[in-house]
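Hi U.,

Before I forget, here's the chain from the pilot set. I'm dumping it here mostly so it's searchable later in email.
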Amino acid sequence: MKKALSIILVLSLVMVSLFSVNVFAESTINVTIDSVAQSYDVMPIIENGRTLVPMRGIFEALGAEVAWDDATKTVTGTKADTKITLQIGNTAANVNDKEVTLDVPAKILDGRTLVPVRFISESLGCEVNWDDATKTVIINSSSKKLAKLVSTFHRPVPTEFTKSNDMYDIMHFEGSSISQQETSYNDVKNKGEVVCTEDEFLASISTTGGDKYGTSEVVDVEGQTFKKALRITCTEPPAATSAFITRTKATPEKNPGDGVDKDDIMLLAFRMRTISTEAPDNIGQVQVQIEHPTSYKKALFEKAVAGKDWTVVYLPFTGVQDATAIGIRGGFYKQVVELGGIEIINLGKGFDIKTLPKTTAILPELEPESPWRKEAIERIEKVRKGDFTVVVKDKDGNVIPDAQVELDMFEHQFEFGTMTGPNTITNEDYRRTTSINFNAAVSEHFMKWAPFEETPDQAIGQTNAAKELGIKYFRGHSIFWERQFGSDKKTNMTPDYMFEDEVTKNKEKFDELCKKHLTEIVSQFKDYVTEWDVENELITNTYFMNLFGMDVYKDHYDWAREILGKDGELYYNDFKQFETSYYELLDKMVEMGVDFDGIGIQSHYDGSTRMPTELMRMYDSHRKYGKRLKITEFSNSIDDKAQQANYLRDVLISCFAEEMMDGFLMWGYCDGSNKTAYRPFYDSEWNIKPAGLVFQDLVYNKWWTKDAKANTNAEGKATIRGFYGDYDVTVTANGKTVTDMVAFHKGYDNVLEITVE
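Structure:
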């Protein structure tokens, strides 16, 4: 019994000893903020390698207001435009409503709430270091005062506008009038042979499902070039649109019974308007089919839409022998729509469909009063603007009341850019318009592996030219792109030797060459280019992965980080944002611990037009990754200048309203850029287009702070709200004027002290 008691006593002493050592270790943890030692009523502790400190002590020492909700056991700290929320025992925290996973949750100890000191400090923009010798957490908050001013270059930005700087006073361009559309249609009509007239089309109308779903009838029309129209009334939308079809006995044949040659280019054209509809966007809709009468193989199966006004619809078709049966599906909503002036034109063999006029698009979200825009503009006001404070003192450090302070923006913090090419070096018009419009750029071609290796002078020359033009931000694109050739099937994107057996069957050699290339190109531009697409389009180009697995990606990002350090911005760039495989890839990259900071969203909308609300939902789907976002290759090459301008306007607004977004770069902005017609800003003679005017109105008028003035108060402070960017500051006091240049950027205290002697 005595032996047992002795054992218990010894074990107890050991446990007490261990506990004492643990307490002692924790009690020696020190915290300094800007070299000032902090003291707390409950000492910091270390849990799972993380230091926790009393919440009120750390928040208030860093200048934040702190609130406690006892019902939910939730801590909220707020400073300037940063809000941090933590819940006791929960590893899911939020910074500005973005979820962050903590290694260790907040906890309550001895009646005090303890929070992770590094998480709190870094969320408030401080630098945090650990001195193991003295067991000290070293917090430096001085970096929060002001961002570093990277460049003092003042580009010749636009200064004259036709609209006010009110963000709701948008530029909007109307599409072609019906008379203009009629003129274009007559030009097309003269290029072919009308094989089905309006009278022939309307002479023999019948309706499938008419007894249950609606009616079809011919009605009179006034004030148009045509006198009759087909009115389709849907009273009950069917489960399948094939249940309600308006048919005609007319055909695309030149002569009845001749059939249709599958190689002939045909055009069905008509005018359409909506009388009434229960569609949520108030747009009527039909679907036109032209098919083989027995096999039902379709030469045409396209939707057409229209608002309340007449618009000309163009539906070209070809490719199906003897496709002569015509039908119109009208059962999408309860609606009444009219189709008039219906004709079919045979344009013959070899006609270029691309030369046909486009149907004037009906896009409700691009209309001036579309409701989504109000919320987006409110978000812009919240996330893209901040309060900037100027403190004015005399040479003895005394504050000066009633000093006049003026702020004038000369550069955006947000990146608005374009791709660069040889024209950036050689073409004066290109150089001039680049400097006027953009503060950012990305290399289109010559920073890819093979092009850089073959002609390094181009990449070097383009970056030097960009500096000369005042380009503040330059993206590197792309360190790796797992394609041997470009779209022309002959221009090398990756050197040929990377596809030879000596490399493809030797991982060590493969790594050696990859690291050599990465080191050379990143080091070459390190002083100017600190942001890189390390990998590009990994879903459609998987050559390296197929050889050695996905671990090669992690290696590439790790090597880039070694060179660029924590201030480098490492991106993954792709165009697959509307496909599941894209998010599966991102999930895998996160799971593997790939060290990347941002995601490049290419945004090529030349063939498909994604509406603003769809884009905003897509941006939001990236929130879970906690990465920065950037539009890296926007394009919208269409010949409808009005739609192009309205679309660019609303893509810009939806992008600028997204808090995670840091930039919007275009894949060419003038006609002929990248061998593509219909670029948005300038035609081939450098005349500015509607989309260029929209861009300048938003970026340099509505999202630009100029002539902003205030007088200092009794404490010598003047606070002005403006868009985040670089500013000229002018202070006048006691008959003297002092000027300065400063970066007022998001995430900083944005307090500038100026001395007037």
